[in-house]
Design a protein that fits this description.
By secondary structure, the chain is α/β, with parallel strands linked by helices. 26% of the residues lie in helices and 26% in strands. It has helices spanning 15-26, 52-59, 73-81, 97-100, 123-129, 165-189, 226-235, 302-308, and strands spanning 7-12, 30-35, 40-42, 47-49, 64-65, 86-90, 107-111, 134-141, 151-158, 242-246, 249-259, 270-272, 278-282, 285-294, 300-301.
């Protein structure tokens, strides 16, 4: 069967999903509908903001559905009328069975990790936070429990030692799009073999998890080792950003470098020359802040920040 003859409904919301939708469109896939989040108020004026996926769909004249609730009878009726052979989910929300079980060929998901590792909402962030050297993408069939369905295809992706989550995200969305296209081709011609994730689990090693990032996750603990702090900063950059405090104000840190030496200060204390560096002590060295954003200010390089900032306390 030619994969371009399949009737496909695509479900996704953020920029990460647009790369996959674009790959399907450019390959000539028959995209009969796009499901994305409703428009939400955003920005200072709280104007309604369309999702990145909706913006793409509108430009390319693809039918769009934006249900508030996925069990809404009107949405389910509209989805059924599209008569999809296959549904594709990339960075969307959890689907009820009545939705993911609708197409004859089921629903496939593109996930940003090598499953069964890093199941959850933030796989890219946690892979970087944990100092992984490698991650990847997985396409799999949706089933009841989140991120547990049978694996269809996997592709590996290296993580650079100084790479942040944003850079990994941008490379991964391209890899994910290419892997999705190969997956659909394989499903159409019957060459793919589904692999239950249970077959890949190690009885002696628990899979790593990727839960949602909360505010407390982002707080820098300066008593942790230098590499752990550095990886936290990388793993939360550019969003939502790791944070600490500077003279009573919240300070987000987006980029750092490590100075592995015997620190002269206690963990969490800072040192600065007021011109070129601002560094915080850890038990085994210093974290140099390279790109930051002080509460109420814009993001800036450290030299620019120090040029205009007046410390009210004496640094160590």
């Amino acid at each position: 069967m030619d994969f371009r003859s399949l009737r496909i409904v695509f479900m996704g919301t953020p920029e990460f999903a647009v790369a996959s939708l674009d790959a399907l469109a450019k390959a000539g896939c028959n995209i009969v509908g796009v499901v994305t989040a409703p428009d939400r108020p955003a920005g200072r004026g709280m104007h309604l903001q369309e999702s990145a996926v909706k913006q793409y769909a509108v430009i390319h004249k693809l039918p769009v559905l934006q249900p508030e609730k996925l069990r809404d009878p009107h949405f389910l009726e509209a989805l059924d009328k599209m008569k999809p052979d296959l549904q594709v989910v990339v960075a969307f929300r959890m689907l009820p069975e009545m939705v993911w079980d609708l197409p004859p060929m089921g629903t496939i998901n593109v996930h940003g990790s090598l499953l069964p590792n890093y199941r959850g909402a933030a796989p890219i962030n946690w892979a970087v936070i944990n100092g992984e050297k490698e991650t990847g993408v997985t396409t799999f069939k949706l089933q009841h429990a989140i991120d547990t369905g049978n694996i269809l295809m996997q592709e590996k992706l290296s993580i650079g030692e100084e790479e942040d989550a944003g850079a990994v995200h941008d490379r991964m969305k391209v890899l994910g799009a290419a892997t999705l296209l190969k997956t659909i081709e394989g499903l159409a011609n019957g060459t793919l073999i589904e692999i239950p994730q249970q077959n890949l689990l190690n009885a002696e090693l628990e899979p790593k998890h990727a839960p949602k990032i909360f505010t407390e996750t982002c707080h820098i603990n300066w008593f942790k080792h230098i590499d752990e702090v550095h990886n936290l900063i990388r793993g939360l950059s550019p969003y939502p950003g790791a944070y600490t405090s500077l003279e009573g104000k919240s300070l987000k840190v987006f980029k750092s470098t490590r100075e592995q030496t015997e620190p002269a200060s206690a963990p969490g204390h800072f040192e600065t020359d007021h011109q070129t560096y601002l560094k915080f002590a850890t038990p085994d060295g210093y974290i140099h802040l390279e790109e930051i954003q002080l509460q109420g200010k814009k993001k800036m390089k450290i030299a620019d920040f120090l040029r205009g900032y007046r410390f009210t306390t004496q640094s160590n």
